[in-house]
Amino acid sequence: MAKCFEVMKPGLATSVQDLGRTGFQQYGVVVSGAMDAFALQAANVLVGNDRNEAGLEIVIMGPKIKILADIIIAIGGADLSAKLDNQSIQPWRSYKARKGQILSFGQPVHGSYAYLAVAGGIDVPLIMESKSTFVKAGLGGFHGRYLQKGDILKNHDSYGVNARSGRQLKYNDIPDYDNERPIRVIKGPDQQLFSSTTYDTFFASTYKMSSQSDRMGYRLEGESISHICENSADIISDAILPGTIQVPANGQPIILLADRQTTGGYARIATVISVDLPQVIQRMSGATFTFELISLAQAQRLYKSQESFLRYLAIS
């Protein structure tokens, strides 16, 4: 291992994340992991890492970091006006960073979650087979917390044969975090608790993201969603997924995300397809949402296409 980063300013909420702590929900352990899994995977591939390697998740207001060794880095996800010394660097491209340089972030241009990958990955202990940070439980990542001034992070000395600077996504492959685009969903498993009229209302309405939103889920405000029966908002606790849309008794939808609980007791009207989760995650408080219904088969085709792209990127 070698020292790679010194945190000079921590930013708003910078944490170590990989693709999550899977396989432990049966014990009540949340998955956590990167909010925008595609962005982290793409950044990792660009620096030659395995797609599941840990990187730094950076939220809206980024950190200021001193580079402690010659390394290769890439940023995926939001454009937060990153600079290496005084030179702007773009998301979705790998760069050679020299020892002593300063990586900083400025105003958000678009999106809210960025991912900093470094060749060799972030060296923190594996906790339940993951490096992800779950801050509420003080679990995983760098001492189970957001980064603080003075923290020193390490990476592995060996980069691997795929580590090189100058790799980048083609323009047409870069995600467009369009705030106006409808979010595609499939119907949820509790369809019997909602009438066809309720579904019509849901798909015809515009919702606003509440300020009471975080890594656990985004609360939406707008047209109230009614249940068939007065008490049918509550269900026997059942499985929930990233993108599950719950409707509690107040009728205001909640989109569950990376730090969601392991099971949920509210009726599930729909599920955001995995390919569109970044479109949800990259919107900021106050942004609006509309929803579009697609079939399960369409959602599966879109997922397979994205997976094929990431696999091709890893070997190209």
Describe the overall structure:
- The chain has 316 residues and is an alpha+beta fold.
- It is built from 4 helices and 20 strands.
- The protein has helices at 37-46, 196-204, 277-281, 296-315; strands at 2-9, 15-17, 55-59, 64-67, 71-79, 83-84, 87-88, 94-97, 102-104, 110-118, 152-155, 183-187, 207-209, 217-221, 234-239, 244-247, 254-256, 263-272, 288-289, 291-293.
- The strands form 3 sheets. Strands 12, 13, 14, 15, 16, 17, 18, 19 and 20 form a 9-stranded mixed sheet that branches. A 6-stranded antiparallel sheet has the order 7-6-9-4-1-11, with no helix packed on it.
- Strand 6 (83-84) and strand 7 form a beta hairpin.
- It is globular.
- The chain starts with a strand and ends with a helix.
- The model has no long low-confidence stretch (mean pLDDT 93).
Give the structural class: alpha+beta
Helices, by number, come to 4
Helix-strand pattern: EEHEEEEEEEEEEHEEEEEEHEEH
Could you list the spans in which at least 5 consecutive residues all have pLDDT below 50? Answer: none
| Strand content bin | 25-35%
* Strand segment tally: 20
Question: Average pLDDT, to the nearest integer?
Answer: 93
Task: Briefly characterize the structure.
By secondary structure, this protein is of the alpha+beta class. The chain contains four helices and 20 strands.
